[in-house]
Amino acid sequence: MQNTYKYRFDRHTIYWTAIYLIVFALLGGVLYYLYEGGYLSAWFTSFIVALIALMALSIPRKIVVTDETVEIRCLLDITEIRRDEIASVHRVETKRMKWIVPLFGSCGFFGYYGYYFDLHRFERVKIYATQWSNFVEIIDIYEDRLYVSCQDADRLTAELTPPGGNRPIEEE
């Protein structure tokens, strides 16, 4: 059995991506105009092209759930979690995600992915999302937290819930 949950960009993510691209283009144009094609504008252009390539290759594409694993497939990377190592799976309200800030990753530029810091729990979490809604929190037996988003978050939560139910959350 294999189920696939696809990611879709929401309007908010598309707007932020367009804003980032416009700002990068304007900054590149200003640097080129001010320094007339000098090393600073060349360095900036090289850095921005590398950044855009890195972010584009890290875009989450889909979540594939098999009998043994859960795979979050990006264009360049696959994150794999064994199903027998999942301790609990919960839906997360968007208002709870306001305490999560980016450490290293994308924040609206082609999605939300990478390492983030949860200010409420004071711990590092990993996020793979193309929209800032419909979050599902996956906690493994090592207490690592992973947040994913997909259009059918309720079905994903029901499918990934471990046999015997979720382990209790310390907040409850």
Topology:
Elements: E1 2-6, H1 11-35, H2 39-57, E2 60-66, E3 69-74, E4 78-82, E5 86-92, E6 100-107, E7 112-118, E8 123-129, E9 135-140, E10 145-149, H3 153-160
Parallel strand pairs: 8-10
Antiparallel strand pairs: 1-2, 2-3, 3-4, 5-9, 6-7, 7-8, 9-10
Helix pairs in contact: 1-2
What's the short story on this structure?
By secondary structure, the chain is of the alpha+beta class. The chain is built from 3 helices and 10 strands; from the N terminus they run βααβββββββββα. The model has no long low-confidence stretch (mean pLDDT 85).
Written description of the protein model:
The protein has 172 residues and is an alpha+beta fold. It is 30% helix and 37% strand. The chain is built from 3 helices and 10 strands. The strands form 2 sheets. Strands 5-9-10-8-7-6 form a 6-stranded mixed sheet, with helices on one face. It has a 4-stranded antiparallel sheet with strand order 1-2-3-4, with no helix packed on it. Strand 6 and strand 7 form a beta hairpin. Helix 1 runs antiparallel to helix 2. The longest helix is centred in the N-terminal third of the chain and has 25 residues. The protein is elongated, with a radius of gyration of 19 Å. It starts with a strand and ends in a 12-residue tail after the last helix. The mean pLDDT is 85.
